[in-house]
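Please fill in the sequence for the structure shown.

STRUCTURE ENCODING:
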């Protein structure tokens, strides 16, 4: 049965022995801000059971199966030629293999899966290449043969694709509800539902912008979900099979219209349809990401989660952090959860100024089972727990397992803010890099402390390493000059990090980070400021202005009184940031690379090579090389790749349980 757990910290965390050590002093200002004015910062965990709670009678031949229809709307325009089409087709084949292997219940032994498929290709026209049919050992060879004959040609027309999909789904509905059709058979399971429940998961796969047909996003959103049963899927249906829907919009490469795909994936047409956008920059990642989707489908215990919090005292504010909008709110949503999962939500609690007693927090949870049509509502009440102490060894250990995850939660919010600011291009990349370096030093100190007792704190280590990977991705993002590619990577990694996924979103860009480059930030700033001061002094002496493209701004001292130099507010006047604490940020600076980071990388590589080249000489060399390239401050990735020694992790929990192993096995199978 679903359960919840609440842990919290307040300003007493500042005197906690775990924090008050030399190894993690860098988090002090962050803790002060998150717990100011008697505010409490907490973690609300949603804890799912490891298996369905429904008991299975041993006398039954089998449990009632989940009936899944996998529908594919595949872009076959000319740009899909080559690896994109090959990987997409192979992924469909592998999905069939996995679904077939689950027919008798493999991952969840008490939950067999019966699956059907259809495939529509579209370019300038749309064709049903794989008609609706059940996935069985007998049908798979014929389906694979037809998939191998798919060709590419023509332009990209979303409108004609969605019209064809509506036509196909209407025919499927007719077949399922036709008493003479072989699909309309009573359930073979004793006591099973008849009419049965079907869940249709629609994959819309494209690699480009619309070049033909309607470009009206609102119209396309409605067309994408248009079936005659759309309005009846939310009510009980006693005579016809009940069909629920779910959409995955998958964008390949950087040529897609990200704004359009985000709108298509928005679950607002109607709100009962679960939708997600998955971005894929490298074709070899298609299998990994689809494998992740498939595993979650197999292990799913609920969709369309709504979580809200409140107290009995109107003057007391309690809020959850919504990572997608970067706002604190009384409610948030989650696409789905799986059996055996723990999902952490960050919470802040601000008591009323006059109140002495802290009213309890009431947690309200709603979700639905799309395979059965059942809807669930839970309510939990949590007293505000006392802050941990460190009076003895056991209390100290408990304090570590409470305090460190809370600090990591605060850091994760700062990371989400950095993703947002890079995407909005509100700050120059030097500011972003310096903020990332500061957060990276915090996380590395936490990692070092946790590593001293690896057997005691494996979850903390995994959580910390996952956040370190996020920061490395942010550092790697500062090297991307293509704004479309930048936004794709940000969406990819931010969604992955927020939903606590396993698949390797952003791995390529995290590996642009050079091991320990942040250690040389102080040297880099000293050298850069000295060189710029000399240039400015020479300019004053000659009374001649410097070249307009020369980055003459000096880097100020790092103001560590603020936990983040990036504002929490997401509302900006157009030029607010010009005079902000980031200091001298230029609107056009976001288009350039980071000068500080470019020098840090060169120093780090030179030290790894045991070279005697000084930081001053490296800066002069960098200036000579870069002025012809618009101050992008690029570096030779092939040369520096040898100095990437760290191991990236993409899991927020230890990967030694049976479900995680099965999860990875499915991802490998689909991507093979």
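FILLED IN BY: designer on duty
SEQUENCE:
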């Amino acid at each position: 049965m679903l359960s919840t757990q609440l842990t919290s910290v307040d300003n007493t965390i500042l005197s906690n022995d775990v924090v008050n050590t030399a190894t993690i002093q860098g988090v002090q200002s962050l803790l002060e801000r998150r717990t100011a004015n008697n505010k409490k910062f907490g973690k609300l965990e949603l804890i799912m059971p490891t298996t369905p709670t429904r008991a299975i009678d041993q006398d039954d031949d089998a449990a009632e199966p989940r009936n899944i229809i996998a529908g594919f709307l595949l872009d076959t325009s000319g740009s899909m030629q080559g690896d994109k089409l090959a990987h997409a087709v192979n992924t469909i084949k592998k999905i069939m293999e996995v679904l077939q292997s689950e027919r008798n219940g493999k991952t969840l032994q008490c939950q067999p899966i019966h699956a059907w498929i259809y495939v529509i290709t579209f370019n300038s026209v749309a064709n049903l290449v794989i008609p609706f049919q059940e996935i069985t050992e007998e049908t798979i060879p014929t389906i694979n043969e037809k998939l191998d004959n798919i060709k590419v040609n023509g332009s990209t027309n979303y409108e004609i694709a969605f019209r064809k999909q509506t036509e196909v789904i209407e025919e499927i509905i007719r077949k399922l509800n036709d008493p003479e059709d072989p699909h309309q058979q009573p359930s073979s399971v004793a006591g099973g539902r008849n009419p049965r429940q079907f869940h249709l998961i629609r994959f819309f796969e494209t690699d480009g912008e619309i070049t033909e047909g309607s470009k009206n996003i609102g119209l396309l959103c409605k067309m994408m979900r248009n079936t005659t049963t759309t309005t009846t899927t939310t009510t009980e249906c006693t005579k016809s099979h009940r069909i629920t829907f779910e959409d995955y919009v998958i964008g390949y490469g950087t040529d897609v219209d990200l704004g359009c795909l985000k709108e298509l994936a928005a679950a607002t047409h109607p709100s009962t349809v679960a939708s997600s956008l998955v971005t894929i920059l490298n074709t070899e990642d298609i299998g990994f990401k689809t494998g992740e989707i498939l595993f979650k489908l197999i292990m799913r215990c609920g969709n369309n989660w709504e979580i809200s919090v409140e107290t009995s005292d109107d003057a007391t504010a309690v809020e959850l952090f919504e990572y997608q909008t970067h706002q604190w709110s009384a409610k948030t949503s989650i696409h789905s959860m799986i059996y055996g999962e723990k999902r952490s939500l960050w919470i802040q609690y601000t008591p009323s100024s006059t109140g002495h007693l802290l009213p309890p927090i009431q947690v309200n949870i709603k979700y639905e089972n799309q395979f059965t049509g059942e809807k669930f509502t839970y309510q939990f009440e949590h007293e505000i727990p006392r802050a941990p102490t460190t009076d003895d060894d056991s209390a100290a250990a408990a304090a570590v397992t409470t305090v460190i995850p809370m600090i990591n939660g605060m850091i994760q919010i700062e990371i989400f803010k950095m993703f947002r600011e890079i995407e909005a291009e509100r700050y120059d990349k030097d500011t972003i890099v310096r903020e990332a370096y500061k957060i990276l030093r915090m996380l590395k100190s936490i990692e070092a402390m946790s590593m001293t007792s690896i057997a005691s704190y494996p979850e903390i280590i995994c959580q910390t390493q996952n956040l370190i990977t996020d920061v490395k991705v942010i550092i790697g993002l500062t090297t991307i000059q293509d704004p479309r590619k930048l936004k794709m990577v940000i969406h990819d990694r931010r969604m992955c990090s927020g939903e606590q996924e396993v698949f390797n979103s952003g791995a390529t860009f995290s590996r642009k980070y050079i091991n320990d480059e942040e250690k040389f930030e102080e040297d880099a700033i000293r050298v850069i400021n000295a060189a710029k001061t000399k240039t400015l002094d020479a300019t004053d002496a000659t009374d001649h202005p410097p070249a307009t493209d020369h980055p003459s701004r000096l880097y100020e001292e790092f103001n560590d009184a603020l936990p983040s130099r990036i504002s929490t507010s997401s509302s900006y006047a157009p030029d607010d940031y010009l005079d902000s604490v980031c200091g001298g940020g230029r609107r056009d600076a976001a288009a350039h690379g980071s000068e500080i980071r470019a020098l840090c990388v060169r120093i780090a590589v030179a030290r790894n090579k045991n070279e005697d080249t000084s930081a001053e000489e490296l800066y002069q060399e960098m200036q000579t090389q870069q002025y012809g390239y618009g101050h992008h401050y690029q570096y030779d990735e092939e040369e520096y790749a040898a100095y990437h020694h760290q191991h990236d992790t993409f899991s927020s929990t230890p990967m030694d349980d049976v479900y995680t192993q099965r999860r990875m096995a499915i991802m490998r199978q689909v991507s093979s």
